[in-house]
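Morning!

As promised:
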Amino acid sequence: MTELKLPSIDYAALAPILIMLGAALLGVLIEAFVPRKQRRLAQLSLGLLAVLAALVMVIVNSGDRLITAGGAIAVDGPTLFLQGAILVLAAMALLLIGERSVERGGAFVAQAAVTAESADDRRQAEGSNGATEVYPLTSFAIGGMLIFVAANDLLTMFIALEVFSLPLYLLCALARRRRLLSQEAAMKYFLLGAYASAFFLFGVALVYGFTSGIPGRSAGVDFATIHAAVTESPASEVLLFGGVALLAIGLLFKAAAAPFHVWTPDVYQGAPTPVTGFMAACTKVAAFGALLRVFHVAFSGAAWDFTPVLGAVAVLTMLVGAVLAVTQTDIKRLLAYSSIANAGYLLVGVLAPSKDGLSGTMFYLVAYGFSVLAAFAVVTLVRDADGEATHLSRWAGLGRRSPFFAAIFTFILLAFAGIPLTSGFMSKFAIFAPALDAGQAWLVVAGVLTSMVLAFPYLRVVVMMWLSEPGESTPTVTVPGGLTSAALTIGVLATLVLGVVPGPLLDLANGAAEFVR
Amino acid sequence: MSNFPFLSVLTVAPLVGALVVALLPRRRPDLAKQVALGWSLLVLVLSVVMWVAFKTDGDRLQFRESYTWIPQWDARFTFAADGIALVMLMLIAVLVPLVILASWHDAESSKRSVPVYFALLLILESTMIGVFAAADVFLFYVFFEVMLVPMYFLIGSYGGHQRQYAAVKFFLYSLVGGLFMLAAVIGLWVVGGKTFDWQALTQVDISTGTERWLFLGFFLAFAIKAPFFPFHTWLPDAGGAAPAGAAALLVGVLDKVGTFGILRYCLPLFPEASKWFAPWALALGVIGIIYAALLAVGQNDLKRLVSYTSIAHFGFIGVGIFAFTTQAGTGAVLYMLNHGLATGLLFLVVGMLVARRGSALISDFGGAGKLVPLLAGVLFFAGLASLALPGTAPFVSEFLVLIGTFTVNKPVAVIATLGIILAAAYVLWMVQRTTQGTLNPALAEIEPMRRDLNLREKVVVAPLIALIVLLGFYPKPVTDVINPAVRATMEDVGRTDPAPEVGSIQEAAK
C-alpha cells in the first residue's frame, strides 16, 4: 500500500472561497438560533461582511499565480479578476435582495412551500415578513461561483457548478408576487439545468477516456493533462470532440447561449427581480469565466476545431437574442433576450485567442454586470398595487411621472445599445477589436448587424417612457430605500465611469489576462 | 493667443452651459432662455477670436491639442482644425444663438420642460463642435454617435406631427450607419498599427481589398448622415417633424458631418478606394440632385419641401467632392457653409410661418404676403438664396462646383445644371402658393397671421441675410481659409487640377 500523501493547500489563496462558504454555513446556523426579528439584519450584515472580506482577500492575493489544493484550484490573474468581479456584483445584488422598504416584507415569500393562490398564500402576499433563507442560499451560490472560475480540473468545475446552481434553482421559486410563474420558472430551470449538468458530466467522462494512454502520464481531467493530451493522445479524436461538445453544452447552458437559451426568458421573468439581477450579472461572469478557462487552457490546442462551431453558436445566439427581443412586451423578458444577445457578443471575445481577447471579455463581463444590475434595480421600483408593473405598455409616459428614474433607465438602455460615453460602447470595442485582429471578421460583422436590430427594442422602451403620454394605468415609481438606491447608484456610476475613463479597468484586466496551466 | 486651447474649450463650454440651464428651476423658463442665449453668444465670441487666430498660410491642422484618454487603445483626446472644420465650427457658432432666439416660444407649446429644450440645444452644440474638432478617429466616432441623443429628444419630445416615428427613424438610420462605421473604425485600427491618430493613419498603406471595405464602412455612415440618395428617406420625416430651430440645426449643421466626414476621413485615409468608388458616388450625387428636386416640387408640406431641397443640395456637395478638383472641392465646402446659412434661414422663416398658421401645409396658405409682407419678403429672399440666385452666397459655391466638375466630367456637370432649373421651379412655386396670389380667406381669420415680424424675429433673420449677401459678393475671406485644406485633401487623393490651358482639358479628363 502506498503512503497517502496529503496535497499542500494554500489557505490564503483559497480564503475568498472559504470565507463565502463559511458565511453560508454560519447563515444556516443563524436561521436556527437567532430570533426571527433579528435574523434579517444579522443575515444581511453577515452576507455583506463576508463579501467584503472575500473581496479584501482577493485584493491581498492579487499577485498570486499558483495552483493549489492538489491541482484542483488555480489562482491566477483571470481567477482573481473574475472573483473580484463576482464579489462586487454580488454585493450589489445582496443590497437589492435585502431591500424591504419598496415592498412590504421584501420581494421574497415567507414560506416557499405554501401552495400558490391558497388562502395562506394570499395572507403571505399581504406583507408578512419574507424568509431569510435567501441570504445563506445566495452566499452558497457566490461561493460556488468563486470556485467555478478558479477550478483547475473538470471535476472541481462540475462540483462548483452544482454548488452554485442548486441555490439558484431555489432562489427562483421565492417570488412573493406571481407565485405560480415563479415556481414554474424554478421547475424549468431545475429540470433543464439538471440535463445540462448531466451533459457536462458525460463530457468529463469522455475527456477522461481521451487522456488515457499517453506515455509517461496518467489519465486525468486536470487542465494540464488535457492540454497535453490534445496534442499527444493516441486515443480517437472522436472522444475529444464528443467530450468538448458535451462540456460546451453544459457551460453554454449556464451562459444562456442559443440554442441552449430557452430557459432564460421564463426564468428571468418568473424569478424575484433581485435574483434575476444576480443571475444576469454574476452567473454570466461565472459561466464565461469557466468557458474562458476551459477553451483557453485545456483545449487551446484544438482551437482550430472548435472555433467554427462556437462561432456559429455565437452568431446564432446574437441573432436569436436580438430578433426575439424585438417582439417582447415584458420588460423582464426583453432584458432576458438582451442578455442572450450579450452572451453572443461575449462568445466573440472568448473566440479571440489573444491576451486582448481575454482582457476584453473580462472587461465586458464587469461592465455588463453593473449595467444589468442597475437595470433590474429600476425594474423593482416601477410598481403598482399588484407588485412590479413589468408589461411594457405600463411604462408609457413614465418619463413624465418620474423623470429621474426614466432618465436613469434611458441611460442604461443607451449603454446596452452601445452608444459612446457608456460602458456598453467601450466593452463592444474591447471585444470586437481583438476578434477582428484575430481575423474573425465574420463574427464582428454579425455582431454589428445584430446590434442594429437590438437597438430597436431598447429604443422602443425609450419611446414608451418619454414620447408617449402617461395613461391611467401608468404606475408611479416607488421611492427606493437606501439599499436599492446604493445599488442603483453604483451601477449607474460604473456604467458612466467605465464609458468615459475605461483605462484603469482595462489596465487591471490586461494585467490579469494570463492563465497558469 | 494661438496657444489657447480653443477647440477643447469650445467643446466643453456649451456642455457646462447645458448643465447650468438644465438645473434652473422649471418655473423660470425666461431665465433659462436668457442663460442659454448668453452662453451661445459666448461661444460665438470665442469662435470669432479663433477664426482671427487661424493662419491661412499655416499648417493644415491648427490649434492641435492632445490629451491621454485610453492608453491601452491609443485613443486620445486630440483636437485640431483645418480650414474646412474651422468654417463649419463658425457656422455652428453663428447658427446656434440664432436658433435659440428663434425657438424662444417653441418649447412652450409642447407642455414639456422649457429649460430642458434649451439644455438639449446646448448639448447638441457641444457634440457638433466636438465632431468637427476631433482629430482622433475614436473621438470622432464618439461624438458622431453621441450627437444623435440630444437630436433624438429634440425631435421626439418637442416635435410636431408624427414626432415619435420621425425620431425613431432618424435614430435607427443614423445608428445603422454608425455601427457599420464602428466595424470600419475597428478594422482601420487593426490594419493601421493600433492607433487612432488621424495624422498617423493617413500615412498607413492599406491593401486594396481591405481599403475598399473600410471605405465602404465609413462612406455608408456618411452617406446616411448627409444624406445621399438612396439613404435619404429619414430626412424629410425628421425635418418635417422637428421643431423649426432643431430642423435648421439638423439640416444646416448636423448633416454636414456626413460630407465633412467624407472630406476628412474617406478621402485622405482611403485615397485609392475613393478614386475607385468615385464614379458611383458621382452617380448617387447626380441622381440625388434630380430626384430630390422632383420630389420637392410635389410636396405640400413646407418643412418636408425644404428637407427635399436639402437632399438635392447635398447631391451638389457630393458631386463637388468626388470631382477631385480644387475648384469643385472648394465649391463643395463653401456650399456646406452657404447651404447652412440659406437653408437655416429658410427653415427658420418657414418655422415662423408655421407657428403663425398652426399648419405646415402649403394649401393652408395663399396670399400670406398681404398679411405679413415682411415675413413673405424674407421667405422670398431665403428661397432665392436657396435656388442659388447670383448675388447670394450659394450661387458662388454652386458655380464653383459646376465649373470644377465640368473640367473633368462634362456629362455630370451638364446633368447637375438641370438641377438649378428644377430648384427655381420648386422654390418659386412654393413662394407663389404660400405668399402670392389672392388671399386665402381662412388665413385672414387667424389672429397671429396678422402679426408681421417682431423685433426678436428681425434680429434672427438679419444676420443671416447679411451674411448671405456679403458672401455672395465677397467670398474671399472664406475661400482663403478653405482653399489650402481642400488642396491638401486633393493631394491626399493624388489628384492635381487639370492645367488651365486650352486643349489640355480633354487629356485631363482621361
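Chain B touches chain A at residues 69-73, 141-143, 145-146, 148-149, 153, 156-157, 163-164, 167-168, 171-172, 175-176, 179-180, 182-183, 186-187, 189-190 (CB under 8 Å).

Hope this helps with the figure draft.
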